[in-house]
Amino acid sequence: MKVSRRALLKLGALGGAAVALPLAPTFASFGKDQPAPSPLVPRFTRALVIPPVIRPVRRTATTDFYEVTQKEARVEILPGLQTTVWGYEGMFPGPTFRVRRGREIVVKQNNLLPDGVVVHQHGGVTPADSDGYPTDLIPPGGSREYVYPNGHRAATMWYHDHAMVKTGDHVYKGLAGFYIVDDEVEDRLPLPRGRYDVPLMIQDRRFAADGSLVFDPLGHIGVIDGDVLLVNGVPWPRFEVASRKYRFRILNGSNSTQFKLGLSTGQPLTLIATDGGLLPAPVDLPAIPLAMAERVEVVLDFSRYPIGSRVILENLDGAGRLGQIMRFDVVREEPDDSAVPATLRPVESIPESAAARTRDWVFGPRATMSASPPVEWVINGREFDPNRIDATPRLGDVEIWRIKNATELNVGGMDHPVHIHLVSFRILDRNGVKPGPYEDGWKDTVLVPKGEEVRLIMRFEGDRGKYIMHCHNLEHEDAAMMTNFAVV
Ligand code: C2O
Ligand code: CU
Ligand code: CU
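^ thats the input. predicted complex w/ copper (II) ion below
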């Protein structure tokens, strides 16, 4: 019987700690120990691609109507090789939705893929029947209309597949795109806009020699670490910039890989927004951690560099090629009338005294003989059941949710980026300490590292109905680390 060393390493089970895993017979078939590396890709040769903004097919006085067809496509990601992806409109990433706060849109999704799909707009305040509940499948050949009221303040959000037990596989194949909300408050700010406002979706992937995607979830530990970094679907792109300021909206769209952003020049990143929109004030940071599904917006000023300079966006968590994400080549001068104002947008601090109650959620592994490796990912000791409601906050109530990442079973455990649908929250503290500046704003996803406890405060507003909270390591989500709450 052979246990994949890589899976155990990812699980944190090795490295001195006592390993007390019960060995199930299913272990024999578990994992391949040495995956072949992806075909070697030259870095910084292909230009960054910016996903096109999708246009409505018709408009009424109140609503913009869009239509999207999900289908397979053959695309060239690695030079000279074809990769089959699943794309919204056949694109990887999908087209960008750019919407106005308060302006409703309706998106008809047609499914030409060979599997049932679900679309979730991550970060939005969406009625439950349009939120992309994991069992609300659009069957192959079918279609469904999603209604998005867009009541959320301006923010960088995204949309992606959410099919029960298949989310990791579907997103890995390409079903993800940006969803950006604009509003009047941001309109009034002099931040870089238009072609100087650029979304960047960072993802790791692994490819076979023929160019096909290798999806190996290592049982349910988390997809095998990629050895190719993609930005908007292009491996290690280069982006020609002018010597001026740019706004970058950065999303970690990976299944199970965390990043830590930094610049090769040591220049700090000027953070202006988190998941749920602008911060009260910009903050300069030498490094910004970014877990799966989290977004940050940064302004980078290239005017400090002479023409001809090259600045690499780095992953300070990665080694070798994985330590680099993309390159900015400063190639021309351009006037710049943009600015980063000293104050951006007030962010409400909800006082703890406003909370009607505190709920406890323990994310952790549970020993089992029926999975390989023999742990399951559960919340409060129970796996996801679409028919069980685990919390019923009342509409309008403020609640504190205390989320603990338990490491049990003598295995080191894994980090869990916890995402709550419907609400934006503030982080009260991590292990009793105030959150770092990179997450001290509106959030919908929070990394809860192994052994840590994070307290969140949030107001349940927008809609009544059944919503989910889950781990955004998509393989954990698919392996039942998800729970229902119903706003009543
Ligand atoms: Cu980004 Cu429930 O997901
Ligand atoms: Cu979501
Ligand atoms: Cu997890």
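The chain has four helices and 31 strands.
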